[in-house]
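Hi there,

I know you've been waiting on this one. I reran it after we fixed the sequence typo, so this is the corrected version. Both the input and the resulting structure follow.
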Amino acid sequence: MPICIAGMHRSGTSMVTKLLFEAGLYLGEEADLIPPGPANPEGFWENRRFVRVNANILSLLHGGWDYPPAIPATWNDGALATLRSDAERVIADFAGREPWGWKDPRNSLTLPFWQSLMPGVRVLIVIRNPLEVAESLRSRNGFSFPLGLSLWSAYYQRVCAAAAPRDRLVTHYDVFFQNPRGELRRILEFLEIPVDEAGIETACAALVTELRHHRKTARHLQRSGIPAETVALYGALCAEAQWQEPKPERRVARGREAAEEERRVDPAWSDPTSLDFPGRPERSPGRHGQVRLKQQLAESRARVAELERIVSEQQRLLGERALLLPNQPAADRQSPRGEGGNM
């Protein structure tokens, strides 16, 4: 049975997929794998053919990885039906290569499409503290915290709605820095991949612990003032992943050390400063908590509305161009859309 690996961008899906690859999961021809990049120096472990189908699905629905589109009434009719033959060809090339799978955070949004082609597909969902994901997206993409958190919620709400509990397994990013061998063994057993202890040792030896950034805990969540629904969803996913945070070590901190510790515990909800983006003027620190969150949510909504206006205008212009150039191939009439790197 094929294995679909999903989860929000910057949640550790690449790290987990690399471990599964080392343990024997086939991901496709090496030439089809997206090479490492600055956003993921250890590799994305994504098959560009699956990514291309996912990107086209989101584009046809007038969305993208960073703008989840509305859920369609059906995933099999209309323009989406034209992508079925492309997806079927990709799947056919994996015949006889079990165990095989594919990883793409966009799977969280497009899973029903793939389920229509592969009923009963197993789904591995990788989660990470939403504050860490929001911090990573701010560092990499300049996203505000509210935008990062809203994307986190949308991805996990949709993938959990699509994947029945019997067909999915949730794993937490942090467990691989506590008990990687035990967790990898648990995943392999669920996916019905033969457990080879030597292979597990080889896979876990490839972990790069230095890449562990943006550590946040349940305490940070409780003090952050993020929506209660997001906290509840994260708690439910942690329970399903059988993940419990280790008890914090007692620390003695005085003076400046104590102030620095408090700063790390209470996350800043202000916009990026000149330290985040050199060359920008320094901004005064924003207020923390619910008031600041509401303000940023309003700013995010305004930004989304403006983006929707721009997209609508571009679609109108493309439509006019299509009428003027009726014989031009459709692919040439579409403007390219950039894709975000994944982790």
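Quick highlight: The first helix runs from residue 13 to 22.

Best,
R. S.
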